[in-house]
Specification:
Structural class of chain A: alpha/beta
Radius of gyration of chain B: 15 Å
Number of strands of chain A: 10
Strand order of the largest sheet of chain B: 3-4-2-1-7-8-9
Shape of chain A: globular
CATH class of the largest domain in chain A: Alpha Beta
Largest sheet of chain A: 7 strands, mixed
Oligomer: heterodimer
Order of helices and strands of chain A: HHHHHEHEHEHEEHEEHEEE
CATH superfamily of the largest domain in chain A: Vaccinia Virus protein VP39
Radius of gyration of chain A: 20 Å
CATH superfamily of chain B: Methylesterase CheB, C-terminal domain
Number of domains of chain B: 1
Largest sheet of chain B: 7 strands, parallel
Distance between the termini of chain B: 8 Å
Strand content of chain A: 15-25%
Number of strands of chain B: 9
Structural class of chain B: alpha/beta
Number of helices of chain A: 10
Largest interface: A-B, 26 and 24 residues
């Protein structure tokens, strides 16, 4: 195993500046500790013997960039992760959203789409599906392509099915997909209300107003300043009384927008109680 | 053995059979510890972790589960949450990471030990407890290479001896400790070892 030390802080800064300058992807405010591991990992996976070699490839091969982005960002996700969170959505948050004539939900940093499909199932079972649109965005176009297909590994289904039941689901989970050899394909009906689009939380602005934004286990990869910037973006994109859902160990506390939000019990869901102009 | 290196962080890693050791040792720690203590154990993800409750109830030191970008304080016990890796941004601030499992584990002891070794260098101290897989060995090696201090539970006293035994087979450790002597050892770790 290559020592983590292969990636020096100065080298990393330089590489990130190059990428930002050449391609417009700004990773300079990503959490350094995690980024270092990812850079080290990509050096190992793609057999670069030195960091300089990786840098050279990136600067001179724009096609390699997409591979780089895919590996540098973490795309580990699962369906109904933290079942208790989905139970709260099902029993407490969605009933509030029901009062709106039309529901818009943003899954920010959706990766390969597991959360978007979990939500779609929840919306089906609460009869909200037909009046909802799910905007699923990610920085990385290749994961969005996977997400739009709704094809996931079969060997995950046992875990997902268990999560689904724990989250309060009482149907036969396998009725939502078809098995094909070692993968399953989720019913295309589920993705009919999803809009997939690239969106970079670092550089892109608000594009709509939502009643619910999910961004779970994405902000942990950002430094504090960038986290605050993204909270501002979410704040700009949330309707008054809308909800923001974060990962189990992420928090809106200590952020610049904290005072405008009220946490929902112990869950990592915050309700927007006032807008920035004091309304 | 070199002396007079200050300890700036103590990491404790463990897997199967380590909880009982933690419950014996951590309550005996004194509140004058001049470093934070970070505990990485393999455990099932569960919303209300029993371990935190048990430790909080018994321990004199504050016990907290880590959240993202938390600032660590001296003389506090921090538990790494299930299903996340723990990384150090600097000597005080930590980040969580839910990337791929390492050694079939998340949190992985190796990941946290390696990250600490890079940040704290020779001021890192780590203790590896009972367990049934090899997670932690690479991490200890990294810490040893940075001239930090590495300790393991005496395999004879471990419920599952594999993890500490592998450590002893693979590297030179600074001390082999029985659970009964760990607390007093840690209590004087601040300035000398």
């Amino acid at each position: 195993m290559i020592e983590l030390d292969i990636v020096k802080n100065d080298d990393m800064e330089m590489l990130l500046k190059d990428i930002s300058h050449l391609y417009g992807y700004d990773f300079t405010q990503y959490s350094k500790a995690s980024l270092k591991r990812r850079l080290n990992r990509i050096c190992m996976l793609d057999k670069f013997t030195s960091f300089a070699e990786l840098r050279h490839r990136l600067i001179h091969d724009s096609v390699y960039l997409s591979r780089f982005i895919e590996e540098i960002t973490v795309n580990v996700t699962e369906m109904f992760r933290d079942p208790h969170f989905y139970a709260t959505l099902r029993h407490h948050i969605l009933p509030v959203l029901r009062t709106y004539p039309f529901i818009r939900i943003w899954v920010a940093g959706c990766s390969t789409g597991e959360e978007a499909y979990s939500l779609a199932i929840l919306l089906k079972e609460t009869d909200l599906f037909n009046k909802t649109l799910i905007y699923a965005t990610d920085i990385n176009p290749s994961v969005l392509e996977k997400a739009s297909k709704g094809i996931f590994p079969l060997n995950q289904m046992k875990q997902y099915s268990r999560n689904y039941i724990l989250s309060g689901g009482n149907r036969d989970f396998s009725s939502y997909y078809m098995s094909m050899y070692d993968v399953v394909k989720f019913n295309s009906d589920l993705s009919s209300k999803m809009i997939f689009s690239t969106h970079n939380l670092v550089s892109d602005s608000s594009f709509n107003e939502f009643q619910l934004i999910l961004c779970r286990n994405v902000l942990i990869y950002f430094d504090k300043d960038l986290q605050n910037k993204v909270f501002k973006l979410f704040d700009d994109s949330l309707q008054p009384l809308g909800f923001l859902a974060l990962g189990a160990k992420e928090t809106l506390r200590f952020s610049n927008v904290e005072h405008r939000y009220k946490q929902w019990n112990e869950d990592k869901i915050w309700k927007k109680i006032s807008s920035c102009n004091g309304k | 053995m070199e002396s007079r290196k200050t300890t700036e962080i103590l990491l404790i890693g463990g897997s199967a059979g380590s909880i009982s050791v933690l419950l014996e040792v951590l309550p005996q720690l004194q509140d004058h510890l001049s470093f934070p203590l970070v505990v990485v154990v393999h455990r099932k993800s569960h919303p209300e972790s029993m371990l935190e409750e048990l430790l909080r109830f018994r321990s004199r030191l504050p016990v907290e589960e880590i959240y993202d970008k938390m600032t660590l304080k001296d003389a506090c016990i921090y538990l790494v949450p299930a299903d996340y890796h723990l990384l150090f941004e600097d000597k005080r601030m930590v980040s969580l990471d839910c990337s791929e499992k390492v050694n079939y584990s998340r949190p992985s002891i190796d990941v946290t030990f390696q990250s600490a070794a890079q940040i704290f260098k020779e001021h890192t101290a780590a203790l590896l407890l009972s367990g049934g897989n090899a997670d932690g060995i690479e991490g200890l090696r990294c810490i040893a290479r940075k001239k930090g201090a590495v300790f393991v539970q005496d395999p004879e006293t471990a419920e599952i001896a594999y993890m500490p035994r592998q450590a002893l087979l693979n590297l030179q450790v600074d001390a082999v400790l029985e659970p009964g002597e760990m607390a007093s050892f840690i209590n004087q770790l601040g300035t000398y070892y």
